[in-house]
Design brief:
There is one protein chain. The protein is mainly alpha-helical. It has 20 helices and six strands. The strands form three sheets. Strands 1-2 form a two-stranded antiparallel sheet. The protein has a two-stranded antiparallel sheet with strand order 3-4. Strands 5-6 form a two-stranded antiparallel sheet. α4 packs across α13 and α7 runs antiparallel to α18.
């Protein structure tokens, strides 16, 4: 890597040296690094609208706008990109199936507003309550069950073209194994490209809408509707978004050598506002992206200017309906192959949280918490209480919270549960990549 000159103080950045969030490189270098962030976020960001039926161009537009809002609200102190959140896929699909897309958008909007309010609360009282409410065994269980709950959806797409799905799956695996740096971090995008080309040769891609679409134009917008019956499906996602944001802020703080704990409230509020704004116009929910944190780790450039470039680039790409139609043309077989990887990785992120926090599964309360929650989530146990629907994610989350805290308190009352130090939270053990 060449030496770079910083604007302002004239300091020369040597190879491997950290460029802090408030430092600025020359614009050609900044634009190049911003382009890397666009590539890193693109593969996962467009998959969410493809899987949920939301318009891809609208999602891309509000991904860019949300990123710029995030930078403004966090006062350019926390470099991060807001891409589409995978944690919402299951409740969105369930709400769309039982009602329609507008109702699903309403659920996303309410979740975003709730997250923004929690961000304001965290800014005032801190994050200690998060640790108490959601120790690692609980949070890991919730993240894992969200990923594994989606397994049947991945298989539904897989079945529609098994050969294309297998080629896509192994393309992602091989790209991950063979490449390092930026290519390794966009292995999902590369796998989709390989699967897409294979699907074209099999006659599975229809280009009619791509040909008819304009090169320049506004994305399609949709308005949300509100239905209380779907809210229990969405609210558990808030817990995952809290863990993601806390974990990502901690990661960036560790990599830059700066203490950013005081920014957690702002990041949560920013994510909530961006999600609510996106849902208001028909876009997908947002979250901070581990892929882009990975790019920062590889380049050691944490300058927020690169994220301004990435956000503006996403907005410009969203202004081409033809780009949106190309994304929409990706066939189910490709989606089936790539989601076998992505949904599995979401589940593994939850398990990694247990490992990083050294959760002791010799303890009965941890065994019961994780075991019951995972089975409820994977089986997608669904209860309808007077028209209010609780699906596997909602019930699995409730199971994890209730079982852990019930067994913990009963154990302390009876003396079977010794008093212990405060549990390690996701704040101490970053939840990277859960989305």
């Amino acid at each position: 890597m060449l030496s770079w000159k910083l604007h302002g103080n004239g300091r020369t950045v040597k190879p491997g040296e950290v460029v802090a969030p408030d430092e600025r490189l020359a614009w050609p270098v900044t634009i190049g690094i911003g382009a890397q962030h666009v590539i890193a976020m693109f593969g996962a960001t467009f998959l969410v609208p493809l899987l949920t039926g939301f318009p891809p161009s609208t999602t891309l537009l509000f991904s860019g706008i949300g990123t710029l809002l995030f930078l403004l609200i966090t006062q350019n102190k926390v470099p991060s990109y807001l891409g589409s959140s995978f944690a919402f896929i299951s409740p969105i699909m369930a709400a769309t199936a039982s009602n329609n897309m507008a109702v699903a958008l309403g659920g996303v909007l309410v979740t975003g507003v709730a997250l923004a309010l929690i961000g304001l609360l965290v800014q005032v009282v801190g994050t200690r309550w998060i640790t108490v409410l959601m120790p690692p065994v609980v949070m890991g269980s919730i993240v894992a069950l969200i990923g594994f709950n989606l397994a049947p959806t991945a298989y539904d797409n897989f079945e529609q073209s098994a050969p294309t799905a297998v080629v896509t799956l192994f393309a992602v695996v091989l790209c991950t194994a063979l490449f390092r740096g930026i290519l390794g971090r966009v292995s999902v995008l590369l796998g989709v490209v390989v699967g897409y080309v294979f699907a074209i040769f099999r006659g599975e891609v229809n280009f009619d809408r791509v040909a008819d679409a304009a090169w320049i134009g506004l994305p399609e917008f949709h308005t949300p509707e509100f239905n209380l019956s779907v809210l229990p499906m969405f609210l558990p996602v808030i817990l995952v978004l809290i863990a993601e944001n806390v974990g990502h802020v901690t990661s960036v703080g560790q990599m830059t050598g700066r203490k950013l704990d005081h920014m957690v409230g702002r990041t949560l509020a920013s994510d909530g506002v961006a999600t609510a704004l996106s849902a208001t116009f028909g876009g997908s929910p947002t979250t901070t992206y581990g892929e882009n944190i990975g790019v920062m780790s590889a380049t050691r450039v944490y300058s927020t200017a690169a994220y301004w470039v990435a956000g503006i680039a996403a907005i410009l790409l969203a202004m081409s309906p033809k780009v949106g139609e190309i994304i929409y043309s990706i066939p189910p077989g490709v989606l089936g192959g790539v989601t076998f990887v992505l949904y599995g990785l979401i589940g593994i992120v939850g398990i990694r949280m247990w490992v990083d926090a050294k959760v002791d599964f010799a303890k009965a309360k941890n065994q019961m918490t994780a075991g019951v929650a995972l089975v409820v989530g994977i089986a997608n146990v669904t209860w309808d209480f007077g028209g209010i629907i609780f699906n596997g994610i909602a019930l699995g989350t409730l199971a994890a919270l209730i079982i852990y805290h019930l067994m913990h308190q009963l154990g302390r009352l009876t003396g079977t549960e010794p008093r212990e130090a405060a549990p390690v939270s996701s704040h101490d053990s970053p939840a990277k990549g859960a989305r």
